[in-house]
Amino acid sequence: MADITVELVAVERLLWSGKATIVTAETTEGEIGVLPGHEPMIGQLAENGVVTFRPVDGNRRVAAVQGGFLSVSADKVTVLADWAVWADEINESQAQSDSESDNELTASRGEAGLRALRRSRES
């Protein structure tokens, strides 16, 4: 099966680097799916989005992201997020509380966390 190199990087850490068969990301223009051989492009990540990918050797991974960019070249997808966490690192009750915050940044991250949790539970 064809694969593409993927890097998921947040300001504070590298979350993942490896080979995957598909990447999906929520951008300001809508959700995009990237398969090996995709045309080069750059997209702006949604402020409270979700990125998923299927590693060649493993189960689908889901991350909540906020802000940043998606860069697609002939053989690599790089997700550069201002903030990102794995869905399995999210405390649902804290994310719910954060999503109701008056602070716009906190609310956006809480919403992204809740969306990532919902996406991770889909089959």
UniProtKB/TrEMBL annotation:
One of its GO terms (molecular function) is ATP binding. It is found in: Cell membrane. Residues 92-123 are annotated as: Disordered. Keywords: ATP synthesis, Cell membrane, CF(1), Hydrogen ion transport, Ion transport, Membrane, Transport. Residues 5-83 form the ATP synthase F1 complex delta/epsilon subunit N-terminal domain. One of its GO terms (cellular component) is proton-transporting ATP synthase complex. It holds the Pfam family ATP-synt_DE_N. It is a peripheral membrane protein. HAMAP family: ATP_synth_epsil_bac. Belongs to the ATPase epsilon chain family. F-type ATPases have 2 components, CF(1) - the catalytic core - and CF(0) - the membrane proton channel. CF(1) has five subunits: alpha(3), beta(3), gamma(1), delta(1), epsilon(1). CF(0) has three main subunits: a, b and c. This is ATP synthase epsilon chain. It comes from Corynebacterium endometrii.
